Structure formats: structure tokens, C-alpha cells
Amino acid sequence: MKFRFCTTIFLSLIISFTSLAADINISEQYVRETIPGTSISSAYMKIGNQSNQPVTLTNITSSISDRIEMHEHIMTEDMMKMQQVDSIVIKANDSVVLQPHGYHIMVFNLEQPLQADTEMTMTLHFDNKENVTIAVPVQGLKQLNKKRHQH
């Protein structure tokens, strides 16, 4: 009887952790091509949380950089400033868009320049112990400018 009870509890935990993975979805991700002579880039995406609990993005890692930070732009005394944030909360059944002039990801200390039409891999770490690894396409600076000017 104890074995059956423990097995049921264990399977319930596995199923609930598996369902957490399905509740976080990443879309519209891209990273900017590096400007020649620099070792910094920025990444953007939409993070959706389809669960009934808030989830917090706590860290981002990648094999191409030892320093990846979450940042946001804020207005201070009529000036736009960028500052690092420790985490980003995605409310239950909601999404957060990481975009220019808002929340975004800064990738520092790139070992090699990022070139258009390639991709990199990032792992997003959440407070529910969920790790989501995604492929992130590198968009050229010219591609980004075209997207902005289309109406």
C-alpha cells in the first residue's frame, strides 16, 4: 500500500513538472548581428506563460557568452536609461515581450561576432526550476531596419 501511494505521488510530481514545461512558450525570438569591432549584442522575444501561476525568468545562459543579462529601458528625468534587472515576472496566463526600448537581453563578451542568417542557442532559467533551451536566429542590421520601416 505504501509503495502504491509513493508511486502515485511520484508520478503526480513528474506529470506536474512536465505540464510546467508545456506552459512556458517562447516565440518571435531573434538576436541582433554584432556591429563590427564589438562583442555585444541584444536579444528579443515573447515569453508566454499559459499556467495558472506566475513564473519568473531568473537567468539566461549560452555557450557563446559568459555574461548575459536582462535589462530594461526606463525614463528618468526625461532621459531614457538602460538598467539591469534581476528577473522578469510573467504573470499567470499572460506574456511579456522583450523588445527594443523595453525589457531585453544583453549578450556581452561574445567569443565570435554574430553573423546574419546564423543562429545561437540560449537557455532560459525560470524560478520553477524549468529550463527552456531555444534556437535564436541572428538578424542582420539591414533586416532589422527594413522591418521597422514597413507599414
Automatic annotation (TrEMBL):
Pfam families reported for this sequence: PCuAC (PF04314)
InterPro entries: LpqE-like (IPR007410), Lxx211020-like (IPR058248), PCuAC_sf (IPR036182)
Classification via SUPFAM superfamilies: DR1885-like metal-binding protein (SSF110087)
Entry keyword Signal: yes
Signal peptide: 1-21
Keywords: Signal
Name recorded for this polypeptide: Copper chaperone PCu(A)C
Organism: Thalassotalea nanhaiensis
